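re the bet — no i am not wrong, look at it urself. input seq straight from the record:
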Amino acid sequence: MELLRITAMLLVVLFHIDFINFNFPENQLDIFNQPLSAYLKIWGVCATYTCVDIFILLSGWYGIHPKKSRFLEFIFQVLFYSSISYALFLIFDEDVKFSWNFLIHILITDDYWFIPIYIILYCFAPVLNYFAENASKQQFAITIIACLILQSLYGWISPKEMGFLEGRSPFSFFILYLLARYIHLHAEHLRNLNKKRCSVFFVLTVSITAAIAFVGYFKGIPYIIDTIFKFSSLLTIAASVLVVVFFYQWKIRYSKLINWIGRSCFAVFLIHCFPYFSDNIFHSTIMNLYNQFTGITFAVLVVLFVISIYILSILMDQLRILIWNSIYRPDLKKQVG
């Protein structure tokens, strides 16, 4: 499933390119003059919107088993890239001034919102695992259904924010985590759905989602648009589940290269989402390419840019791993002792 982790990170990058850079479709005129083009752009955004849900479902599929070493390594990875990124901008950008408050701020909010919520999920994983392992199949199912209904009412279709943060809350992450545990442990029919059916249902689900969003843009109804583009959307969750099942059914041989990339792919998120990098390099580069090139040329250049970010991030992460191993290697300490 490391390949799924890599794919999910790619979806994160593409989501940030599509939704944040262009906010497709750019205006109502695009809808009326080029409806097919607008719909396809919306379809792409809806497909990449599954990225966050996929990450959490993947964590719940096999379960998080907290260990001190893994937790500390995760924190170290976040601090490592935040510090390096911040230091580079302090050196090369005269407008950037050092501030501890800013550094602490970005670790808690802004583009790094995922991190504190995932840490909460990580800490609560033993409790969630205990419930998943000891609840009956019926109890488990009723709990999942009740939580999804509750979130749908107050965190999806409700026009007011009621604590679910559109799927960016700890409770929303708990729901996704337990949903994945349930599917992996009990939902054999869904878990064993073949790749072809997963693909068809995924395309169908995303197409329906995009069609609803298209109507919202066409009719100028903000409520429809805001409702569709939420991580707590049942349609987004369903599409995300289908992606996870697809990769579960895709039995690929063990690959050192895939595992090597998968271990470091979170670095892609930490680097390209760092505020200064995101604003001054990532988004500005995409917009410059968009303004200067069109069609296949633009697509090829974007792909090359994304690949370059992947390569840079993975190579930098080897330094991070080297430093971490020199600081904390309990297995070596045991051998020495």
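see?? Residues 332-337 have pLDDT under 50 and may be disordered. told u. also The longest helix spans residues 295-327. so pay up
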